[in-house]
Amino acid sequence: MFSLQDRIALITGAARGVGRAIALALADAGADVAVNDLQAGAELDEVVREVIRRGRQALPVPANVAVPDDVARMVATVLAHFGRIDILVNNAGIMTEIPFLELTIEQWDQVVDVDLRGVFLCTRAVLPQMVERRRGVVINISSQLGQKGAPALAHYCAAKGGVLAFTRALAREFGAYGIRVNAIAPGPLDTEMTRPYATPAWLANKVAQSVFARLGKPEEIAPTVVFLASDAAALYTGQTLYPNGGGVML
Predict the structure, then answer these.
(1) Is pLDDT above 90 for 166?
(2) Per CATH, the architecture of 8-241 is what?
(3) Were 187 and a residue from 96, 153, 239, 247 both cysteine, which residue would form a disulfide, CB within 3.0 to 4.6 Å?
(4) Which pTM value belongs to this model?
């Protein structure tokens, strides 16, 4: 039930961190993967090599998920190579910590463009062929902060909260086509995105919010993606799963 044998997945933001872990976990479960990041480079190439070592096909598709033409080109490239996209994982995201009264319009737009607009653009580009085949899975990577909020992160929380609402709306609209849309909202993770802020005080604050008193690891998020992508999650749609060490309990 957890097998993804011969399914085709597109993962955005897959060169490092959570996206990389997701790409490798999907490959381990049997999927062929298209891996996206903002630019081509050594990190994206290494993910491709790791997928191939697992006996699966991999395709690098660099693109800016906030730019419509980039997204259209990316999806067209994947469809031309693999013929379809069974699984879309909207993982690409950025985060900046800025007190609200110091937050500029440009800083707000930068985060919302990637973290929310990017999810919209990629999903809009991938859904038509899922609708045509009446089958597909969309998994949106949000954050527990989209549920609980946090100081100096109003723009990030707004974007991630929007992803959760977007997930529920699409689940209701496209369920009749056999398409499942779910979200994952991790707690604080040890990744390249959080390390610039990881002062002792920052770490102490984040760890205090976790029942397990530690940050999560990207490899601990990826199995939830495998589950939601698989037939084992056949009754899951419009749901948000929280692999967060108890930071949010619903």
Answers:
(1) yes
(2) 3-Layer(aba) Sandwich (3.40)
(3) 247
(4) 0.95
